[in-house]
């Protein structure tokens, strides 16, 4: 089973900590005072300002905010694609803000699946080769297993019949499903999605959201930046970014938004 409860991300494999329920409650993602300042010709620009955030294992969190509010920057901090100017980013027991570039790439490949608005499949590789790529990079599965696993992931997103096509030969919604399969290649506990439905029609966006809800039900933790307030309202939690600051009261792990998706009822 590909969409089984994540092994690496399960509470039983969390780092040692306080005993009992408090250990289980340890967040998967933890940001402490994260600030990101870009140096621009016009002077320093603060894209994130003092972000404190905890996301528990199995959470489905939407990040909303206007264009330019810092959503992508926040995702990049958690994925280790970019570093904070100040503050700390922890995923499980890893201080992401401290990792060297080499270690970051390996850590990211195993721990985080990233889904982008424009899919970013490699155009010269077939669908199944795109899904195998993270496995090739991280050597998580034996070469013989990789194609079998990639095909199983493609089946989960109902794309197996397109396995040998090039990305250009399939629709946007299909490309996004392949990108989600690729994000799951190494069975990461955390999936970060940056406007994953931003380039899809509303019916296809609903299908992608439903797929995310299934992943959450299977034990993944998802952080999704979105412009779509209807979709955001159906996540378990909603974070609102305004000019690089989290506003509203939902940034603490203990606070859930109403209306969890039906398929995500098992999430904590
Ligand atoms: P969002 O994803 O919410 O649209 P971003 O996180 O992409 O917002 O950007 C937040 C702000 O930071 C924007 O004003 C953007 O122009 C600025 N920004 C992002 N990346 C850079 C960069 N590399 N250099 C300078 N400014 C940047
Ligand atoms: Mg963005």
What would you note in describing this structure?
- The structure is a single chain.
- This protein is α/β, with parallel strands linked by helices.
- It has one domain: Rossmann fold (3-Layer(aba) Sandwich).
- The protein has eight helices and ten strands.
- The protein has helices at 21-24, 71-79, 101-111, 127-138, 143-156, 172-183, 202-217, 229-233; strands at residues 29-40, 43-55, 60-64, 86-91, 94-95, 112-116, 190-194, 221-225, 237-242, 245-247.
- It has a six-stranded mixed β-sheet with strand order 6-7-8-3-9-10, with helices on both faces. A four-stranded antiparallel β-sheet has the order 2-1-4-5.
- Helix 7 links the parallel strand 7 (190-194) and strand 8.
- Helix 4 (127-138) packs across helix 5 (143-156).
- The longest helix has 16 residues, at 202-217.
- The chain is globular, with a radius of gyration of 18 Å.
- The chain binds adenosine-5'-diphosphate and magnesium ion (MG).
- The site of adenosine-5'-diphosphate (ADP) has 12 residues, from strand 1, strand 2 and helix 2.
Strand order of the largest sheet: 6-7-8-3-9-10
CATH-defined architecture: 3-Layer(aba) Sandwich
**Average residue-wise pLDDT:** 86
- Secondary-structure element order, as H and E? HEEEHEEHEHHHEHEHEE
Give me the number of helical elements.
8
**From the helix content, strand content and strand pairing, which structural class follows?**
alpha/beta
Largest sheet: 6 strands, mixed
Bound molecule kinds, no repeats:
adenosine-5'-diphosphate, magnesium ion
| Helicity level | 25-40%
- Given this structure, which CATH class is correct? Alpha Beta
Return Rg in Å. 18 Å
Q: Can you tell me the residue ranges where pLDDT is under 50 for at least 5 consecutive residues?
A: 5-23, 249-268
Q: What is the third-level CATH name, the topology? A: Rossmann fold
Please indicate the percent range of residues in DSSP E strands (runs of 2 or more): 15-25%
**What is the number of strand segments?**
10
The geometry reads as globular
How many distinct folded domains?
A: 1
């Amino acid at each position: 089973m590909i969409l089984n409860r994540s092994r690496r991300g399960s509470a039983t494999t969390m780092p040692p900590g306080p005993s009992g329920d408090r250990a289980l409650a340890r967040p998967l993602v933890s940001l402490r005072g994260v600030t990101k300042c870009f140096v621009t010709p016009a002077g320093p620009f603060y894209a994130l300002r003092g972000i404190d955030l905890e996301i528990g294992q199995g959470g489905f969190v939407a990040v909303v905010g206007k264009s330019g509010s810092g959503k992508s920057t926040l995702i990049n901090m958690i994925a280790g694609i970019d570093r904070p100017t100040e503050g700390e980013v922890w995923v499980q027991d890893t201080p992401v803000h401290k990792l060297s570039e080499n270690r970051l790439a390996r850590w990211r490949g195993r721990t985080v699946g990233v889904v982008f608005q424009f899919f970013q499949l490699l155009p010269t590789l077939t669908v199944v080769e795109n899904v195998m790529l993270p496995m090739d990079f991280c050597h998580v599965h034996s070469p013989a297993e990789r194609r079998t696993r990639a095909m199983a992931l493609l089946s989960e997103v109902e794309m197996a019949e397109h396995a040998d096509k090039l990305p250009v030969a399939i629709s946007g919604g299909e490309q996004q499903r392949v990108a989600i399969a690729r994000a799951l290649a190494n069975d990461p506990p955390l999936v970060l999605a940056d406007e994953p439905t931003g380039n899809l029609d509303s019916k296809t966006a609903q299908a992608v959201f439903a797929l995310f809800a299934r992943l959450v039900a299977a034990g993944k933790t998802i952080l999704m930046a979105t412009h779509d307030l209807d979709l955001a309202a159906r996540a378990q939690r909603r974070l609102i970014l305004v000019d690089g600051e989290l506003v509203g009261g939902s940034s603490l792990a203990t606070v859930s938004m109403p209306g969890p998706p039906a398929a995500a009822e098992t999430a904590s």
